[in-house]
Structure formats: structure tokens, C-alpha cells
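Chains adopt folds. We examine one example:
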Amino acid sequence: MIAKMNVLYYAAAATTAIAGILHLVLAPNILGFNVNTGIFFIVAGIAQLFWVVPMIRRWGRPWYLIGIGGTIVLIILFAITRMPDNPITGRAGPIMPMAIAIEVFQAAFIGLSIAIIIYESRRKRISGKTAAETA
């Protein structure tokens, strides 16, 4: 059972790492014509790569929630920048296959992180009951 639960942590780390790498792969192409967006992709990619550490090292619920929140912000920014006449760019951006892949990995990260939070809260509840029953 423990080995199966380890898979959740590694899968969450892998999904955010892949999304971060894909952001970093896109950055050089974007830097050529929009420096601000290119820098944003670099920062987002580095942040997502950093988030591998809290997931593998199991830093705890606050870190998982911050990761979920940051990833939700990235997804919202993607959605907003694809709308016509949006407040950020003023025009709808293209929806490329790489962007879809990034969004899928980000959504997977959110789902896996939520599963980790649920798993850890249930584990604490069960171990708390066991300790109280034996006392």
C-alpha cells in the first residue's frame, strides 16, 4: 500500500516537472518577439520545476496548496489570454498543441495533489484514532 501511495507523490512531481520543462522549451521562441511573455514562461517553468522538491520530499499540506493555487493561476492566465479582447493582451492567443499538453499536465498535477491531500488527511485521521484507542 505504501509503495502505491509513493506513486502519487512521484506522479505529481513528474507532471509539474513536465509542465515546467515545456514552459522552458517555449520561452526561447517567445523571447524573440515578446520579452515580457518570454520572461513569464521562464519564471513559470522554473517555479514548476522547483515544485518537484516539495512533492518528492513531502513538505506537507501548505506546500501542496500553494502549488495547487499557483497552477490554477497559470491555467486561468492561459484561459484569459485565449479570449478575444482580453485585458492582458487585447487579442486572443493561438491554442497550440504544446499549450494543450502543458494545460493537461497542470490539471493532472492539481488532481494528483488533491489526491495526496486527501490521502494524508485520511492517514492522519486513522492514525489518530488508533493512538486514541490504544491509550
Remarks:
- Residues 97-134 form the longest helix (38 residues).
